[in-house]
Amino acid sequence: MNKKTKALTTEQYKEIIQTMREGFSGCRPNERIATALVLEGNLGLRISDILKLRPCDIVRDGDRYRLEITEQKTGKCRVFTVPLVIQQYIENYCLRNGIDRNALIFPITERAIQKHLHIVCDYLGFEGISTHSFRKWYATEIYKANGYDIALVQRLLQHSSAAVTQRYIGIEAQRIEAAIEQHAYML
After folding, report:
1. Which of 10, 20, 25, 170 is the most exposed place for a label (fewest CB within 10 A)?
2. First-to-final CA distance of the chain
3. Residue 13: pLDDT over 60
4. Using an 8 Å Cβ cutoff, are 97 and 90 in contact?
5. pLDDT band at residue 100 under the 50/70/90 scheme
6. Given strand 58-61, what is the order of strands in its sheet?
7. Which pTM does this prediction carry?
8. What is the pLDDT of residue 169?
9. Is residue 14 part of a domain?
10. In a domain, 3, yes or no
11. CA distance 142 to 54
């Protein structure tokens, strides 16, 4: 894990995705990379696992959709529900781009995504952001939206301990800052 990689703010997430989709002087729009990063930020998968996805990997299971993958980095099997809105987003992207059910959704390298993301972040003036920032953003947003349940986020990311997850999303630093703030109010 790259300790210099920061979690995105929601504003940065939106700005990066929008800039990738629209392009700017000297950088063409890139819907493919924007879509891959949207999936990383909404499924919490590493970019290496996003790049292995095929439309046929998302399977209808009753009234929901599920995805079963073996994580490339850890070798751990992960099965989880894909929200309907994300399944439809993927399906529409594949239809617009003529992607067969058994083909890779993103026939692109991790390096190409990192390179394009770096160009966009330079343009926007953002530092310390890599593809992994999107996974960290996912983890942080899930943490905040679910009553600061670190065990839930740990399970979602398949981390070995809650301490690893806390470091991952920077909770220790936040807790230290909060403790300092609260102490100041006690005076």
Report:
1. 25
2. 39
3. yes
4. no
5. very high
6. 58-61, 64-70, 77-82
7. 0.89
8. 84
9. yes
10. no
11. 25
Residue 100 burial (C-beta neighbours within 10 Å; 0-12, 13-18, 19+): exposed
Q: Identify the domain containing residue 141 by its residue range.
A: 10-185
| Domain annotation covers residue 2 | no
Tell me the residue type at 186.
Answer: M
In the chain, % of residues over pLDDT 90: 74
State which amino acid sits at residue 102. N
Mean pLDDT, all residues of the chain: 91
Residue 134 lies in a domain: yes
CA distances to 25, 57, 60, 154, 160 from 80, rounded to whole Å, are: 40, 12, 12, 14, 18
CA 122/CA 36 separation, integer angstroms: 19
Side chain identity at residue 29, one-letter code: P
Total tally of structural domains belonging to the chain: 1
Count the Cβ atoms, other than its own, within 10 Å of residue 138.
23
- Looking at residue 109, which CATH number applies to its domain? 1.10.443.10
